[in-house]
Design a protein that fits this description.
Shape: globular
CATH topology of the largest domain: Rossmann fold
CATH architecture of the largest domain: 3-Layer(aba) Sandwich
Order of helices and strands: EHEHEEHHHHEHEEEEHHEEEEEEHHH
Helix content: 25-40%
Structural class: alpha/beta
Largest sheet: 7 strands, mixed
CATH superfamily of the largest domain: Vaccinia Virus protein VP39
Radius of gyration: 23 Å
Number of domains: 2
CATH class of the largest domain: Alpha Beta
Strand content: 15-25%
Length: about 425
């Protein structure tokens, strides 16, 4: 079997399904387990830190692990960085068969930090019967020193190991998501997969075809590059299913415009087409008092949306013609929202248009930007769905990492994004 620790909603699992293989996932989160069940993934709902290893001994061909990243992530408080010495000590002890987790956990600033040491507990027990044949692990970039510690131990056990930082956009994911990766094998030289994409398309050479250009959000979402469709307005925008994240007055402006008959739905979604105003725009709370004129259509190539990765002042903002930045979710500071922008120099001032200042990305859109299919059955309310999506490994990246270990070909057409 292939054992998937901290399996989440099925990023690794969906990649394996595309490759024609199945794994068994260990996952604690209730809603991630429901998503996995709806997607047909095999799952044991359990605490990975408490589950015994013996049921898998003598049966495990490959081990996958993506420990929770909240304690280490740029999106959180990053208390895991303070706990690093304790996590390194836990890995050292577990590799020698000593279980000091309870004592070390009592000293951790974030109780989730020590979960990054759990794969070593499984690896030590499985290594007694020369298992697994291969290992693949993924985490946020700050975990790379810990992966290097794992690598040193695994090499002593006869593995070839590679560790490093990979950018998911280099493998056809419409998102510049950088992750620390560990790949290990007992039977082949461990090395990263060859990138298939680059920031700029490369020409064909004597060595073969060049890499394709990074996949844009417009391409991934199936919005096209010419008509510039716009996202769907969704209710319950807060992480817990609360109020929509429109600034004061914006939602009322849309309602009033619809009542006056000046609101025109797009054929590509339910988002209103922006309308031009006469004269200077008033603040959003009083825009409803201003008349509107002719619609300024997206088809005129003068207005579009960009994606802002969070609510911080230094948030990454990317145009539809680019990949997204890393999708962060989990609390209100990490909301990914669409923001209006002129699509060309001289385009209309968005303050002069009857549009909201921001609209939260939908779960389906976020899932597509992670390379899950549009039909993936996310369970839970919007906040629970976004949390799963943000924590998941992009399946397309996962497939590139796993295919060499499984000696299986990977057809990029198997990951048609907007389908």
């Amino acid at each position: 079997m292939i054992l998937d620790l901290f399996a989440g909603p099925g990023g690794w699992s969906h990649a394996l399904t595309v490759l024609g293989v199945r794994d068994i996932g260990l996952e604690w989160d209730r809603w991630a387990c429901r998503t996995r069940a709806a997607a047909g993934q095999l799952t044991i709902r359990t605490d990975v830190a408490r589950y015994p290893v013996w049921p898998f001994t003598g049966r495990t061909h490959g081990l996958i692990a993506s420990p929770p990243c909240q304690a280490w992530s740029m999106a959180g408080k990053r208390l895991g960085l303070l706990d690093q010495p304790l996590v390194h000590q836990a890995v050292t002890d577990l590799a020698q068969g000593r279980d000091t987790r309870e004592r070390l956990l009592a000293s951790c600033q974030d109780e989730r930090s020590l979960l990054a040491a759990e794969p070593m507990r499984y690896l030590h027990a499985l290594n007694t019967v020369s298992e697994p044949e291969w290992v693949a692990m993924e985490e946020v970039p700050d975990v790379l020193p810990l992966w290097k510690q794992y690598a040193a131990i695994l090499r002593k056990w006869g593995f070839s190991v590679w560790t490093g930082i990979l950018n998911a956009a280099d493998y056809g994911v419409p998102q510049t998501r950088r992750r620390a990766i560990l790949l290990a094998s007992r039977v082949r030289t461990a090395e990263p997969p060859a990138p298939t994409h680059a920031q700029a398309a490369e020409p064909e050479s004597l060595f073969g075809p060049g890499r394709e250009q990074w996949v844009s959000m417009a391409t991934a979402l199936g919005w096209g590059a010419t008509d510039r469709p716009v996202p769907t307005v969704c209710a319950g925008g807060g992480p817990g299913g609360g109020a929509e994240p429109f600034p004061s007055g914006s939602r009322k402006t849309l309602t009033d415009a619809r009542d006056r008959g000046t609101w025109t739905p797009r054929t590509t979604g339910n988002m209103p087409t922006p309308q031009r105003r006469s004269g200077r725009a008033a603040p959003s709370s009083s825009r409803k008092d201003h008349p509107v004129e002719e619609p300024v259509t997206a088809g005129a190539h003068r207005w579009s949306w960009a994606l802002r990765s969070n609510n911080q002042a230094n948030a990454t903002i990317r145009s539809l013609s680019e990949p997204a930045g890393t999708l962060f979710f989990g609390h209100r500071a990490n909301e990914c929202v669409w923001v209006p922008e002129p699509a060309e120099p001289g385009g209309p001032d968005t303050e002069q248009l009857l549009i909201p200042d921001s609209i939260r990305i939908t779960a389906q859109e976020a899932g597509l930007l992670q390379t899950f299919p549009a039909s993936y059955p996310w369970a839970g309310n919007k906040g629970q769905q976004f949390s799963q999506i943000g924590n998941a490994v992009p399946p397309r990246l996962a497939a590139h990492l796993l295919a060499p270990h499984l000696k299986l070909p990977l057809d990029p057409d198997d990951f048609t994004l907007a389908a």
